[in-house]
Amino acid sequence: MKSIAIPYLIIVLYHFYNSEYVQAKDTKGLPGHLKPLGHSGRHIEITEINGFPSLKTFFKQHVSQSKPLVMRGAAKIYPAFSKWSDDYFLSLPETSTAEIDIQQRKKQNYSLPYLRATLAEFLHRYNHTDEYMVSYIPSHLKTDLYLPPCVQCDDLIHIEPVMWLSNGGTKSILHADQNHNINCLIRGTKDFILINKDTPDQTFIDAPGTYSYVDVDRVDMDKYPVFSSIDFYDTHIEAGDCIFVPASWFHQVRSYGYNIAVNIWLKGEDKFFDVSSCQDVTKAYKTLDQFTYSLVEPPSHDGRDELDEGAEMFRQAATFF
């Protein structure tokens, strides 16, 4: 009896330790378990330059190649860089009537609807709430911003730009946008974490659309072991810097301090855009109010509701944030 029981026990133990239960628990020993996103994995530096590149260089080396880029000090040429503050906004009469969209929680939660208020109403209360602004740029502020010279071409289709304003502490979900994004920071600092759209293991995209349910503050390596070894492209940007995030690249963003940023969008298919008809702009920059914008909606996690059913499903399901 004893000789039969011992081998049987060995077999049971073997299957137990090789079971999904034990293997799942073992993943909790992976680096970065219950740590913020990006705590583990391999970190790759993003290419950096000073200022904006020329239009043709930008499209040849970054848009067509789907390669991110940090542009140090590029936004310092904007009038907004020297002008923008709450006091400045409130000094403009249009601020009392310009309506904006407001996110209710700094850690994005799409189970909560966006709020509507005037910019003035928001400015009077946001420092005492968890709210932050993610909205189309009010028309009266577009004169303070240039369209980046690297995308100033009449043949390009531009999507309505978006403005972010908070007192810091905002955290986006991990997501990918269908459009190219140039994010220029006017005030504060931001940390960007990017994941290549062609990364082989995309099991972390587990929500409708190109979103992830991962808690960006406490990554569960039991559920997302891929993050222990994935390649992260990350950078820290300061006021005056811009970053180009190519379409379909996954990214997560954190903001610190009094924070204002603007997003300039380009359609994802512009990867194949022929720039031969465009002229490089070196002077006479044009402000945003001088351009016509596409009616295509920016993605919901950047301030507007997506029109597809998948995004609406995500809004209803994402109660975990």
TrEMBL record:
Pfam families: Cupin_8. One of its GO terms (molecular function) is 2-oxoglutarate-dependent dioxygenase activity. SMART domains: JmjC. InterPro entries: Cupin_8, JmjC_dom. This is JmjC domain-containing protein. Residues 126-281 form the JmjC domain.
